[in-house]
Amino acid sequence: MSTWLLGDRRVNRLGFGAMRLPQTGAAFEPGSPPRDRDQSIAVLRTAVELGVNHIDTAAFYFSALRSANELINSALSPYPDDLVIATKVGPSREPSGEWRSPAGPGELRGQVEENLRQLGRDHLDLVYLRAEGPGDITDRFAALAELRQAGLIRHLGISAVGPRQLAQARAVAPVVAVQNSYGLGYRAQQDEFIRLCGEQNVAFVPFFSIAGANREAGGGTDAAVRLAWTLARGPHVLVIPGTGDPGHLAENVAAAELRLSDEELARLDELHRTGSA
After folding, report:
1. What is the mean pLDDT of residues 234-248?
2. Is residue 277 within 8 Å of residue 244, measured between CB atoms?
3. Of the segments 130-134, 158-162, 205-209, which one has the largest average pLDDT value?
4. For 33, which DSSP code?
5. Residue 212 — pLDDT band, cuts 50, 70, 90?
6. Which of 8, 187, 260, 277 is deepest in the core (most CB within 10 A)?
7. Which residues are catalytic?
């Protein structure tokens, strides 16, 4: 499995997204049945056994009965030395599941501390600031940079952003990763941004790389092919497919070893450009 140096930690380019752990069905869908707790814990442990050492989560990944952070803590603590856990701040939800207003600079410390408490850690490996629209993120990113200086955060990233916001963040503190939605046939306008991230040695970590724009299983193209195509976008591109199903986990891990031929890549690139994948 190929790797990338994410800050000061080398991670396998296939990670694990925890969004699907708390419930079945579409992410954040009200009333979705909770996923079996024992199965979720088993999937997390199996992922690590299979070589996954990069897990993406957030305190707002929860359902009425399950919390992704709590499941990660229960399954994997004490954590392996090489495991990188990335989380996101900015958005948050009421216990009922309703979304709150995005956090301002003064509220971000509380969100960081909540992730620390839920995960049972004294620091967070990687924290993304999730932007809310195209506005300036300087003040909020500076608040996270202060928490990094205080030792609560090791590395910083940004999510749901464009090139201008990346420049704003990099003017404040080092950025090790960008996390945006992207996949085969979905948001092809980001291709140039992905190239820019590579030039700046910033990892690009797409979510919905299998599902695509509708957050469901993508088109007629096999999920493993979609993951392999995404990994072929550049050595700095990581993937974090999420699942609570053991069978899907095994398929995702196998996809990291799939190598597409030049002819296959050219055909898929054309589908991507036309949005017909």
Report:
1. 94
2. no
3. 158-162
4. P
5. low
6. 277
7. 61
CA distance 17 to 95: 22
275: left (phi over 0), alpha (psi -120 to 50) or beta: left
Pair type for strands 84-89 and 124-130: parallel
| Intra-chain end-to-end CA distance of the chain, in Å | 26
Kindly state the helix (H) or strand (E) to which residue 114 belongs, with its residue range: helix 108-119
- What secondary structure does DSSP assign to 117-174, as a single string? HHHT-SSEEEEEEE--SSS--HHHHHHHHHHHHTTSEEEEEEES--HHHHHHHHTTS-
Whole-prediction pTM: 0.95
216: pLDDT strictly greater than 80: no
Q: Is the dihedral of CA 9, 173, 17, 256 positive or negative?
A: negative
Query: What number of residues does the chain have?
Result: 277
What residue type is assigned to position 91 of the chain?
P
Domains and CATH numbers, the chain: 14-274 (3.20.20.100)
Give the torsion sign (CA, 65, 207, 72, 38): positive
- Residue 207: left if φ>0, alpha if ψ -120 to 50, beta else—which one? beta
DSSP one-letter string for 56-70: E--TT-B-SS-BHHH
Which residue reads 């955060």 in tokens?
Answer: 153
CA distances from 82 to 68, 71, 198, 217 (A): 20, 19, 23, 31
